[in-house]
Amino acid sequence: xxxPFQAYNPTWETQFEIIKNELQIELALLQPQVEHIGxxxxxxxxxxxxxxxLIGVNNEIELDKVPLLLAGKDYVYYEKYNExxxxxxxxxxxxxxxxxxxxxxxxxxxxxxxxxxxxxDFRIAHIHVMVLHSRHWLRHIAFRDYLRTHPEVVKExxxxxxHLVKQEWQDGNDYNDAKDAFVKxxxxxxxxxxxxxxx
Length: 199
Hints:
Pfam families: GrpB. There is one protein chain. This protein is α+β, with helices and mostly antiparallel strands and 199 residues long. It has one domain: Beta Polymerase, domain 2 (2-Layer Sandwich), CATH 3.30.460.10. The chain contains seven helices and five strands; from the N terminus they run αββααββαβααα. The chain has helices at residues 11-26, 60-63, 66-70, 96-99, 135-149, 151-164, 172-197, and strands spanning 33-37, 51-57, 75-77, 89-94, 123-131. A five-stranded mixed sheet has the order 1-2-5-4-3, with helices on both faces. The longest helix has 26 residues, at 172-197. The termini are far apart.
């Protein structure tokens, strides 16, 4: 499959604010911190037109309350990813069209992901839930802020993405794996920079 890829669009920030407001209402009991991350959060960087949202909660008990609070809404909970990333809870926010197709609310451990959910046209957002100020929270925030302030790194990342999106991929995870070496290197640079400049 070819992944959708668009030049930076300022409406991505507006889309994030709408999603953020919705999530703050749905998760009001937890008083979460909701942040825009990923390529759609960096002005000038091309991206898949799917908003990456990072939700911060206070502890692991709250982490496991989020799937219950979002159940029955236009979200699909990828419980199956908890095995590989126990520190994160991951959700897709679906378009209205996708939600009407009646996908399961949870993809359980051991279950296959329905083929249609690999279609990025059905996705509005990727939602990552983590414990606030954990190591994994920090690397996402640091990488975002680092890209926002280091145009030379954005230029290199843009070139890599432009090269990769010309290829066929089984799914978005394969595409992410192809970016992994660059992202891991620059995430480490970002964390070092963040700890010296922001923390």
